[in-house]
Amino acid sequence: MTMVSFDRRPEDYRHWRLRIEPPLAWLEMDVDENGGLVEGYELKLNSYDLGVDIELYDAVQRLRFEHPEVRAVILTSAKDKVFCAGANIRMLAGSPHEWKVNFCKFTNETRNGIEDATENSGQIYLAAVNGSCAGGGYEIALACEKILLVDDNSSTVALPEVPLLGVLPGTGGLTRVTDKRRVRKDRADVFATRPDGVKGRTAVDWRLVDELVPRQEFRQVVEQRARELAARSSRPEGTQGIRLDPLDRTVEDDRISYPNVIAELDRTAGVVTITVRGPQGDGWLLAMTRELDDLILRLRTNEPELGTWVLRTEGDPDAVLTAEREVLTGTDWLSNEILHYYKRTLKRLDVTSRSLIALIEPGSCFAGVLLELALACDRQYMLDGPPIDDEDSEERATLVMSEANFGAFPMGNGLSRVESRFYGEHDHLDWLKRERDRHLSAEEAVELGLVTEAPDDIDWEDEIRIVLEGRAALSPDALTGMEANHRFVGPETIETKIFGRLTAWQNWIFTRPNASGPDGALRRYGTGQKATYDRKRV
Amino acid sequence: MPTRIDYDAKIPNNVELSDNRRLQRALEGWQPKFMNWWAEMGPTLETQGVYLRTAVSVGREGWAHFGHVVPHDYRWGIFLSERDPDRRIAFGEHQGEPAWQQVPGEYRADLQRLIVIQGDTEPASVEQQKLLGLTAPSLYDLRNLFQVNVEEGRHLWAMVYLLHAYFGKEGREEAEGLLFRNSGSPDTPRILGAFNEETADWLAFYMFTYFTDRDGKYQLGTLKESAFDPLSRTCEFMLKEEAHHMFVGTTGVDRVVTRSAELIREHDTMDIAAHGGIPLDLIQRYLNFHYTVSLDLFGSETSTNAANYYTSGLKGRWMETRRKDDHQLTEDAAMLDKPQPDGTWASEEMQRILLLNLDLRGEYIADCESGAKRWNKILTEAGIDFSFRLPHPGFNRKVGINSGHHITPDGTIVDAATWERGRKHWLPSDEDLAFVRSLMHPVYERGKIASWVAPPRQGINGKPSDYEYVYL
Question: Per-residue pLDDT for B1 more than 60?
């Protein structure tokens, strides 16, 4: 199995060209057919695999941090007559189940990131669809604020997954069509069952695209529309970006370490212990977030069998609160970017299909922004007693809630993690708010409902071992389903629908013989033979 | 299904259009749009009458009527071959089932796409040849040009009929789109590349009708095998008309070669440009260009679309019913020659079903060879030591496995610089094109002919070759 790295630099992009022309940026897709991440497929017609999307993710990130001067981003293709053919089918057909699902998840997150940039960074995305645009290609366009389609009387937008591949548009296609673009459901049905898609006037009338542009004027109109979007952007003038330098990461067989984050891999137990360090200097929150984000992605992609992640912290809770205040109360663009980036990283954790267990011990710093990590976990265990290796110590574990825990980092369902934890319990939430900015003992944490259990130092080691071993014995599939279910209480949003409903359905469809069996649509695609379907409706 | 065509109807047809009022209304709505397109994009040269062939019956004998018609008044209509009530599907997973008289819902989008692409090529060639009438070498040639043009228009009608009759509102929209796209238009070009190139001179026209229309013949031949019977019957009749277009190409190139041979003998030099003839090596360069552009129309050598169409029964092989195999092709293998980065050729074994475009192209190439043989025979008989050759199928290709490689006409893989140095020996240069254009002066006098081309051996429909085919 190839180890996937998420390190990219615009100078080395194989599949994208990023051009900065303030206040605009051009992000042009030009997929290298022979640049697939894994052997066995060619990325024809601007089709993409994980490697292509990693570059897109990198570009979207860099635009936010390195280019505050960019107010609108034009996402288009550098190829003639084709915008993007979507996810590469041979790649999907040849990939193991978890790879397919993980791929869908990551591409979803990248799309969400594009929408987040438009909404929260004033970096507004415009899709300039300059040729045929199918499946995931149209989903990239759907992530943008506006979609312009070239009017050459043959270019179409299409979601052909259902009729051609027997699967669903895996990066939120169906949901974005109905919920975001508010395409009428009957039309959405017609659209998503047509292998050839919709073009021209009809695409505009059905709201699948916003505007048609004649071929010769295309570039000019695209630029004009992008300038109009840029003009309404909230991005401040006259600021300098910061460079996102390569991460300082050491990878060993059983350990991945960064200055602020360390992961210890126990392959026998199927457990990763992730330790996040508290502030050790300036710029901690951004540096830690980048490292954590990278680690989540690496573990998710490269270590599918390490099913339980234990989250720990080390450091001074008050230093965390100080560092957090600087950013939370900051009114500059960079503080805003850091907050939203941390929000997105927490969301990545929320949708990660691993059992997440927080261990709160003496010497930890689960305060404010870092308490969010514990609240993102499925269970929290807090040691009610001295450090295990020093029973004479006076040191005790504490938790601190701060402003950061009450709305600064919403989950995909639009709620904070404490609101999700105490859904509909308004009195309890008011009580919690009153307990902000105070070191809470294990006993108090139990009383306030912030932890699952608080074993003492005599029970601690056994208790934790049993929890982890017990977890490892359960069906990973059932756990994935259960956790995703429990983590997202309350209202549905476009995001929860995409990750919850769609990925669950997609997960199911991906394992069905109609899609993935030897005669299924994904396997048969491109062979010239038709798929054989089991006609029973389940 | 009558074999005679009803010419009393507003739209001549043999599909009992008068019994289907809705379809009739729809097509009568399209008719004036077509006439506008013809007036705007059709031949520039106005005439008082052209001696044209018009279909009167789709039966085997005596299907055409000849007479002088003003092109604008030509009776374009809808003609399908007779229906074989017992016809069965010859290939693919529906093999043996009765042919479809209606579009199966499952294949609606694919069939529509196939028909739109075929339909899009028909008006394209009229547009490409729009100006040629202004430089016709004789009234006979002018007549042939118009014949080809009105029949391309007829073929457009054939595809539009299918779109209107079987594909509902969307089909009607696509039918309008066929008139809306224009060859070479920067905004709304024709779908296939070759149909956006211009046909600037008459040698190009002969080459086009020989090579590019012949591609059309083979494409129609595969659609004629379709399980969708109305498409099959439409194409069968179109093939009958198409034969004349290729006749124009074959005899056109014959006559140019004959004339060049005469001039070579007369002046005892191969360099006949100064004597108003087209040198043989220049003809070879035209041939190289038109042949290779036409090869591109067959699409990529390996094609899953073609395989899907085959499995579904939408599009068969050339002469499918005469092939002696299982008509499924999932188990058979075939070889594909591929250029390698190291400059050699490698042969790869692949599933036959993925190589259907290559199969069709093979039939086409064999057919094209017969042209080269004909033209060489003219030279041999004139005692001239020169022979025309079809270049290697990898030469000058923009589509498929050879695109991106630099392959010479004899099939050697070379580097980009070497190829560029050879280009002017292999493909028409700007000077070549300018020279041929300099010969293109109209000859509209009855019985006269331009200096660079020989007169036809015989006239049309038993008329003498100096007949007044066109009233100007």
Answer: no
Task: Name the band, by pLDDT with cuts 50, 70 and 90, for residue A398.
Answer: very high
A184 and A58 housed in the same domain: yes
Task: Tell me: do A460 and A311 sit in the same domain.
Answer: yes
Q: Are residues A188 and A278 in the same domain?
A: no
Beta-carbon contacts of B20 under 8 Å, excluding residues fewer than 6 positions away, are B165
In a domain, A6, yes or no: no
Mean pLDDT, range A375-403, rounded to an integer = 96
**E strand or H helix at A90, and its extent?**
helix A89-94
Do A50 and A174 lie in one domain? The reply is: yes
Chain A contact set for B191 (CB, 8 A): 154
Judged on CB neighbours under 10 Å (0-12, 13-18, 19+), A446 is middle
Both A336 and A195 in a single domain?
Answer: no
Q: Return the pLDDT at A491.
A: 93
Q: Quick check: A81 contacting B, CB < 8 Å?
A: no
Which residue from B192, B182, B227 is spatially nearest to B88, judged by alpha carbons?
B227
C-alpha span between B113 and A276 (Å, rounded): 57
Q: Tell me if residue A1 falls in helix, strand or coil.
A: coil
A332-373 per-position pLDDT tens digit: 999 999 999 999 999 999 999 999 999 999 999 999 999 999
* A197 shares a domain with A165: yes
Query: Which residues is B88 bridged to in the sheet?
Result: B98
Q: What domains appear along chain B, each with residue ranges and CATH number?
A: 83-471 (1.10.620.20)
ipTM of the complex: 0.74
Of the candidate ranges A30-44, A95-109, A292-306, A500-514, the one whose mean pLDDT is the lowest: A500-514
B186 vs A contacts (CB less than 8 Å): 215-216
pLDDT at res. B61: 61
For residue B120, pLDDT beyond 90:
yes
- Measured between CB atoms, does A220 come within 8 Å of chain B? no
- For position A46, what pLDDT does the model report? 97
B463 touches chain A (CB under 8 A): no
Same domain membership, residue A477 and residue A425:
yes
Closest residue of chain A to B192, computed from CA coordinates: A154
In chain A, % of residues over pLDDT 70: 100
- Which pTM was predicted? 0.85
Query: Are residue A41 and residue A146 in the same domain, yes or no?
Result: yes
Which residue range(s) make up the domain with A257?
A: 251-487
CA distance B463 to A468: 98
Q: How many domains does chain A have?
A: 2
Distances from the Cα of A382 to the Cα of A38, A416, A447, angstroms: 43, 21, 12
Cis peptide bond N-terminal to A22, omega within 30: no
